[in-house]
User: Which sequence fits this backbone?
C-alpha cells in the first residue's frame, strides 16, 4: 500500500502550478505592484467601493508587506464622466486609516462662480479640485475620473447589483423601465439606472441617490472570485492625477470596507448663465463635510426614487 | 545561500509539497508566494541556517495548518469527500490509474496534520525527527499521526476491495 500512497501523493504534487507564475508574482511584489492593480480606487461614485474592496481582496495582504506605512486618511475626488466631457457624478470620499470610507456626493448642477460645477473638469482638472476645496473646506489629495459607461459591464461581472426602488419608473431617454421594489441590475439596465434623471421627482438629486445606492450594492457583491475581472474592467476606464501612487494607496486598505454615502446640502435653484443651477451654500457645505468626515456619517435607508 | 538561488533551486519542489498537503494548487500557490515574501524579508537569518529548506517548509506547513486557511481547507475536503464516495464504485480494479486516484481522494480527506505528516514521509522522504521539526511537535506525535493515517487508508483499502469483490 505504501507504493500506492507514494504514487497518489506524487500525482497530487504533479498538479502544482508552474513555478514561473509564482516567480512573476514575487517579482511584482518586489516592485510593490501586485497585479497591475487597479487604479481601482478610482471610479465614480462607485470607485470608492471598488477600490477599497477590490484591491485588498485581490492582493491578499496577510502580513506579507510589513513595510506598509501607517495609513493616514486621504481625500479623493471621484469624478464620473459620461459620453461628454461634462461630469455626471462627483463624489468627495475620505478614505480613513481603518478602511472605512465616508463619501459625499456633490450635485452636478451646483453653481460655482459663473458656471456649473460639472463643466470644470473638462476645462482643467485643477479648476474642479480647486472649486471643490473652496466649497467644502477640505483639501483634495487626489482625484480619479472614470467613464461611467463601464458600469454596465462592471455590474455584469459581479452578477448584477441589487438596488431598491420606492416606485416604478419609466423614462425613454435613458431607457429606464423599472418596477418598484428590490431588483438586480446589470448591463444596459444598470446604465439606465445610473443615468435616469428625467421622470424623477428631484431629477439629478435623485440620480445622485441612485449612484450611492449602486455603489453600496456593488460593494456588497465584490469578492475574491470576481475581484480580478473587476479590477481589469475598472482599470480600463479610469484616469487618475499624475503623481498618485494608486497601488500604494490601495494596498493600505485591508478590506472589507464600510462605505457611508451622503449628499452635500444645497441652496435653492437659480437661473444662471448656464441654465438652471443649484445655489451653493458654502457655510452649510463646509459644516456638513466636516461633520460627515468627522465621524458623524450615518448610513441611509436602502430604497431610492 | 542567497534568496534568489534558494528560489531557483527549491521553488518547484516547494510548490509540489504545498500542493500535496493542501490538495489545492491555487491555495498552494498563495501560501508559497506569501511565505516566500515573508522569508525574503528575513533571509539574512534563514539563509544562514543549516537547513533553510526545512525552515521554509515549516513556514509553509504552519501557514496551511493555521487558522487562516481553515475554511478553505474544509471546503476542499468536502469536495474530495464527495469524490471519494463515488470513486470506489465506478473504478475498474484493473486500472492502476483509477486505484491511484481513489487513494488520492482518500488522502485528501484525512485530517490536515495527518496528511502533512504523510506527505513529509512519502513525498519528502523525511525522517521522524525532521517531520517533528516541520510540524513543531514531538516525535511520538509524528508516529501516532502517521499510524492513524495509515490505519484509515488501510481500512478504506480493505472496504474498497471487499466492495469491488462483491460487484465483480
Assistant:
Amino acid at each position: 500500500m505504501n507504493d500506492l500512497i507514494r504514487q497518489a501523493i506524487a500525482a497530487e504534487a504533479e498538479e502544482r502550478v508552474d513555478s514561473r507564475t509564482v516567480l512573476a508574482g514575487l517579482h511584482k511584489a518586489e516592485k510593490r505592484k501586485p497585479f497591475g492593480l487597479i487604479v481601482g480606487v478610482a471610479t465614480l461614485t462607485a470607485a470608492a467601493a471598488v477600490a477599497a474592496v477590490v484591491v485588498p481582496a485581490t492582493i491578499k495582504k496577510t502580513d506579507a508587506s510589513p513595510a506598509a506605512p501607517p495609513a493616514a486618511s486621504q481625500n479623493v475626488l471621484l469624478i464620473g464622466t459620461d459620453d461628454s466631457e461634462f461630469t455626471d457624478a462627483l463624489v468627495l470620499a475620505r478614505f480613513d486609516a481603518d478602511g472605512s470610507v465616508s463619501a459625499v456626493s456633490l450635485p452636478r448642477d451646483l453653481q460655482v462662480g459663473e458656471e456649473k460645477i460639472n463643466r470644470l473638469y473638462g476645462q482643467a482638472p485643477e479648476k474642479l479640485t480647486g472649486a471643490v476645496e473652496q466649497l467644502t473646506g477640505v483639501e483634495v489629495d487626489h482625484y480619479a475620473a472614470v467613464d461611467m459607461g463601464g458600469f454596465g459591464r462592471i455590474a455584469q461581472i459581479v452578477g448584477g447589483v441589487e438596488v431598491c426602488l420606492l416606485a416604478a419608473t419609466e423614462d425613454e431617454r435613458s431607457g429606464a423601465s423599472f418596477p418598484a421594489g428590490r431588483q438586480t441590475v446589470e448591463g444596459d439596465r444598470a446604465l439606465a439606472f445610473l443615468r435616469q434623471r428625467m421622470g424623477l421627482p428631484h431629477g439629478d438629486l435623485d440620480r445622485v441617490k441612485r449612484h450611492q445606492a449602486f455603489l453600496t450594492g456593488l460593494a456588497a457583491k465584490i469578492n475574491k472570485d470576481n475581484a480580478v475581472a473587476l479590477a481589469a474592467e475598472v482599470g480600463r476606464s479610469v484616469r487618475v492625477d499624475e503623481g498618485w501612487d494608486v497601488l500604494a494607496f490601495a494596498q493600505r486598505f485591508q478590506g472589507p470596507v464600510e462605505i457611508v454615502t451622503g449628499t452635500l446640502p444645497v441652496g435653492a435653484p437659480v437661473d444662471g448663465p448656464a441654465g438652471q443651477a443649484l445655489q451653493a451654500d458654502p457655510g452649510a457645505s463646509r459644516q456638513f463635510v466636516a461633520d460627515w468626515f468627522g465621524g458623524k456619517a450615518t448610513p441611509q435607508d436602502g430604497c431610492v426614487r | 545561500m542567497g534568496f534568489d538561488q534558494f528560489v531557483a533551486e527549491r521553488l518547484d519542489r516547494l510548490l509540489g509539497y504545498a500542493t500535496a498537503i493542501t490538495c489545492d494548487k491555487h491555495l498552494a500557490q498563495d501560501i508559497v508566494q506569501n511565505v516566500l515574501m515573508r522569508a525574503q524579508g528575513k533571509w539574512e537569518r534563514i539563509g544562514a541556517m543549516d537547513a533553510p529548506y526545512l525552515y521554509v517548509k515549516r513556514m509553509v506547513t504552519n501557514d496551511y495548518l493555521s487558522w487562516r486557511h481553515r475554511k478553505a481547507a474544509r471546503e476542499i475536503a468536502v469536495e474530495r469527500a464527495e469524490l471519494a464516495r463515488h470513486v470506489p464504485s465506478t473504478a475498474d480494479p484493473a486500472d492502476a490509474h483509477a486505484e491511484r486516484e481513489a487513494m488520492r481522494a482518500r488522502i485528501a480527506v484525512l485530517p490536515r496534520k495527518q496528511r502533512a505528516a504523510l506527505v513529509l514521509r512519502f513525498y519528502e522522504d523525511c525522517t521522524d525527527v525532521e517531520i517533528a521539526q516541520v510540524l513543531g511537535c514531538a516525535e511520538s506525535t509524528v508516529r501516532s499521526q502517521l499510524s492513524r493515517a495509515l490505519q484509515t487508508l488501510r481500512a478504506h483499502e480493505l472496504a474498497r476491495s471487499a466492495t469491488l469483490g462483491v460487484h465483480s
Summary: Chain B has nine helices and no strands.
